[in-house]
Amino acid sequence: WYQRRVRGLHFSISMVKAIDKIRKAREEKKTVYSFEYFPPKTNDGVRNLYDRLSRMALFEPTWVDVTWGAGGSTSQLTLEICLNAQSMIGLDVMMHMTCTNMPRQELIDYLKKAKDGGLQNILALRGDPPRGEEWKQHEDGLARAVDLVRLIRENFGDHFCIAVAGYPEAHLEAVSYEQDLQYLKEKIDAGADFIITQLFYDCDLFLKFVQDCRNIGITCPIVPGIMPIHTYAGFKRMTTLCKTAVPDAITQRLEPIKDDDEKVKEFGIELGAQMCKKLMDAGIQNLHFYTLNLEKSVTEILSSLELSKSTERKTLPWCHEKSSNRSREDVRPVFWNKRPQSYLARTATWDEFPNGRWGDSRSPAYGDLNDYHLMSLHNTQGADFRAMWGSPQSPEDVFETVSKYCSGQIPSLPWADQPISAESNKIREELIWLNKQGILTINSQPAVAGVSSSDKIFGWGPPGGFIFQKAYVEFFISPDRLQKFLDYVKRFPTITYQAVNVKGETFSNCETPNAITWGVFIGQEIKQPTIVELTSFLVWKDEAYGLWKSQWINLYEEGSVSRSVLQEMHDNYFLVNVVENNFLSGDIFAVFHAFLGASSSPSA
User: Fold this and answer.
1) In this structure, what is the dihedral angle of CA atoms 555, 560, 561, 567, given to the nearest 10 degrees?
2) Which of 193, 237, 332, 535 places its Cα 20 to 30 Å from the Cα of 210?
3) Tens-digit pLDDT profile for residues 577-586
């Protein structure tokens, strides 16, 4: 909807450069802050991001920035959000731009559009390739972020304020910390105005990084990147992929509460405030928050630091021109006019307990952590993964590798960064059996009916609650077996499924959102943090098939048997999810037993 309707609404407004705001804050000895967002993956998510931007605009950030997807995959949407956030919400905006997979002229064209729209701030990055691809310089493109900085200066002079990325613990691909600092100095010498850093959780490492920069002649402002901890799983995944140092004190605080999402979030707020306070005490006057499109943690950190602004903005002129009838919201071009309080309350809690992969696709936080702009999508552990997963000579070898994961013999798969979860112990033998029968499982959960919210394995949320789950299995299956399996599913009326291949061919008997985890708590509405829905599944499909290539296929040489086996599975196998909706007495594996034959069951 926004492509049709919003595109004609934004108009050029000249905004203040971020570097000028930073300098002014220094002169006035004020601490200021900025927020980062990523383009949501669904239209509903985009609508609600605009609502979130409007609410968070009341905190008067120095600027907000919007990420640019891997290989320029969200370039048009990024530009649209930036222009509308600026012209219709009145925010100063910084647009991310990467040079990956884009020719010089296309980069210049986007910069012209940004300039014509009134944007004056660019975060220049090399960027990551599209999912499933290796990083390659475009034949008419740029190789590094420093080349993009030079391109901007050569073609647009000083119109744009340019920020670049810095890495307190060195970039994952850097040969050494010292070399990485020299690359950073090149970017500054080429014309960048200031630095925004990678996330970190050790403030001393950041302060050392600042001093090391000063020692080699980097004198520009260095803005620390702060990512509040929202969930334990997300924190572990991010710090593992980014190889971020985590002080023992943080680990000791997190481990006892890791199964209580609300307590983890509360600790994340406490830790974020402590980190900001330490940085401010050390003389840092600019804080940059990686919001992950979430609101509560960042705003509470600001409130605890007494940094939030108390003055509210006037109602923007166009708010009075829009209908407030929520039944017609799907055709409204923009959604930053005021909403009924009931709507605000409900949408504000969509991502209160963001467990699992299948977040509500209406939420602006729907997406994945790889949208974080400093996250590397490259497989930098090729030798380790080859040793772990071997060199498959047949599909049976692939199934055996996944069986080893399910049995706990290996700690990860292309689709799973962490070892198999404790809750899967309940169905471990069934999962191993499925893989040995040629059904490649990549995610699952058992049924749960009314366990305590304090349960060490299944619990989450505040004490005194009760947790429920529907059984769920996600897997890859060959196309010749899929139709037979779906024929068996028809015999089980409480089973729902969705299936899709890499080409997008889709089969489903459930196209509406299906809650598969929910909690009942004292004095609260029922929480539904984990759902399965077709829109989410089709978005995940792109990532799942991309991981076949980026994490596994690309480990092996062109023409090798291993590469051919994996490529054949990538090209032909269907990705399927199955839900047993009878969470009281249903057996999700009954349909598999019927399909595969009772004699081959693990208990036979």
Assistant:
1) 60
2) 237
3) 999 999 999 9
Instruction: Give the tens place of pLDDT for each residue, 57-85.
Output: 888 899 999 998 755 567 889 999 998 88
Lowest mean pLDDT among 200-204, 371-375, 392-396: 371-375
Q: What is the pLDDT of residues 390-406, one digit of tens each?
A: 999 999 999 999 999 99
* Six token digits for residue 162: 């340019």
What average pLDDT does the structure give for the chain?
A: 82
Mention every residue, 6+ apart, whose C-beta is less than 8 A from residue 381.
none
| Interacting residues of 325 by C-beta distance below 8 A, sequence separation 6+ | none
Cβ 337 vs Cβ 322: under 8 Å: yes
Residues 6 or more apart whose Cβ sits within 8 Å of residue 139: 103
| Strand bridging mode 506-508 / 495-500 | antiparallel
* SS3 label, residue 65: strand
Q: Alpha-carbon torsion 316, 317, 318, 323, what sign?
A: positive
Q: Which tokens in the block code for residue 410?
A: 């290996």
The pLDDT of residue 2 is above 50: no
- Collapse the DSSP code of 289 into the 3-class scheme (helix H, G, I; strand E, B; otherwise coil) and give the result: strand
CA distance 448 to 469: 5
Q: Enumerate the active-site residues.
A: 36
- Location of structure tokens 């055709």: 331
Q: How far apart are CA 129 and CA 16, in angstroms?
A: 32
